[in-house]
Write a structure and sequence with these properties.
single chain, about 280 residues, eight-stranded mixed beta sheet, two-stranded parallel ribbon, 10 helices, about 35% helix
Length: about 280
Amino acid sequence: MAVPHWIRRRLPPAGELEKMDTLLRSLKLHTVCESAHCPNIGECFGRGTATFMILGEVCTRSCHFCAVSGGEPLPPDPGEAGRVARAAQVLKLRHVVVTSVTRDDLPDGGAGHFRSVVEALREALSEATVEVLTPDFQGNTDALSIVAAAEPDVFNHNVETVERLYGAVRPQASYRRSLFVIARMRKLLPEKLMKSGLMVGLGETEKEVETVLGDLRDAGCDIITIGQYLRPSGKHLPVFEYVPPEQFEVYRKLALKMGFAGVASSPFVRSSYLADAFMGGKTR
């Protein structure tokens, strides 16, 4: 399938990438920007922003769309929280996004580690807002309560695709469980923002996307990101179609009409892309 012109991007300046890479390596940190082969890495690194990926870079699941490596991960690093906070200080971030690989091997799925990182960030950058992009914790309500106790300003959990495609795209996950996670956190954090993300171009229909948006609103989701699925390698799911920009605009208008407070919908949108733009100047 030919790649359309709207999918092509210029290579980022090498100097900006090297600068960010040097900082991350010196603090022994990972970003989802690198691990997931994000197409926006140059723009975000050039702005001095990154989405920190905690709990290692090996995932216990093997989703068929994701570039993060699967396998047996190492134990959590107790010093990681402090290093994330230090990096955020050096970068002078006003909004910090923290995500992780899925850690089904841990009793709490890594929830306690998320809480430690959020607390370290709050101590280091008291005025910064914090967003967590978490796995589903297998629907463990105790784990969700641990994350909620840290009171992140934004709780983000991606549904990724429509319910019909879960078996092909996310065989170890559950669409209904992801909706439950968002609904549960809505109750635990009634004053905070709830967010989710969706990929298109995997064979979904417009009606199915509309259904996902409706389900997310019913679960209490405030912000939605919609972007084009891009195949990380030949081992991953092929792209079913490259969705044109005008269709992303249809989805954007539909989401706003359904009551989402924030919508980002275009081919290169990713879950944490320009995440600070949704905060509306909010500070702690």
